[in-house]
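TODO from last week: model Transcription termination/antitermination protein NusA.
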Amino acid sequence: MNIDFLHALDDIEKEKGISKETLLEALETALFSAYKKDYGTKENVRVDIKDKSGEVKVYTSLEVVEEADNENVEISLKEAKEIDPKYEIGDIVEREITPANFGRIATQTAKQVVMQRIREAERDVIYEEYKQKEGELITGTIQRFHRNNIFIDLGKIEALLPPSEQMPGESYEMGSRVKLYVVEVNADNKGPRILVSRTHPGLLKRLFEVEVPEIFDGIVEIMSVAREAGSRSKIAVLSAEANVDPVGACVGPKGMRVQAIVDQLNGEKIDIIEWSEEPAVLVANALNPAEVLEVIVDEEEKVAEVIVPDFQLSLAIGKAGQNARLAAKLTGWKVDIKNQTQYDQEKAAQTEKIEDPVSFDRDEDQVELSDINIEEAIIEENQDKEPEV
């Protein structure tokens, strides 16, 4: 190796972000292994690369003893004194043992090591970059399909969009750009593995952060999200300022903000409701667009009994129970919906049951009140009669 090689390492450091010291350390380690392999020595060797000239030297470490029995690891005190009079027994002496043709080996090894370290470093850099993006929104280009899996080109690396994370009914075309939610980033021998999603509730949340400045600035906060991807979603928002309507901010002028998100989610319907710390109010809001007459909450069981007008029952429940299901997910409460007629009938039945007189069945241990009255009447009648002579 020569000075030009060191200049090349400087260029790699600038372009790839891999420090020159890291490359030299890796190269010294590789040359150490190459020396051991080619020369089969058991000596304690050390490879040193001069950082100014690029010259490669191999040194062996020898312990100073009175008389050397093993020249591979020991040196006599007399020989050590010839090198430097200061050496004493127990000191370590380094002696250069660089082979004549080691420069050729070093050159070949250097190329392999540097290329390998570049690949590893690039993988590490990409991993760290995307690990920080877990839970964030990214944009990629659909690159290829394989067994229902979609591979997304992110520029430096591919991401995987598996079938479970694809929106039902959404078509994906080669070369089209798509917004995705980064679910997780893992590292393996082949490089970072990035899992992305189009169905994750976090995708909806991040899209609102992009489209609604009040959310990005922290004035409006997203408190909860419930989503059935490709069909319908609900989002609960809260304003930190009294003069800012959180629902209106998310909807935007003429519905432009929410419509932009709907378009990016292939027409998925989105209900935006205002968050409340009062469970009854929150549950009533969550059942939007249905009208709610009353909400009776059971704090212990965390169950909310909801009464709606008769004509609103199907709207409150939703198709296949979707509206009620999303409301339960959004609020964290179990939601039991009843129409006004059903609720009134149940209430009347309970009242009727309470007002009914208590009755007893005839058996060996019980006697009806009517039997007791008859018996008493007979005794009274006999007492009133005069005795016959």
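Done. The two ends are 153 Å apart (CA to CA).
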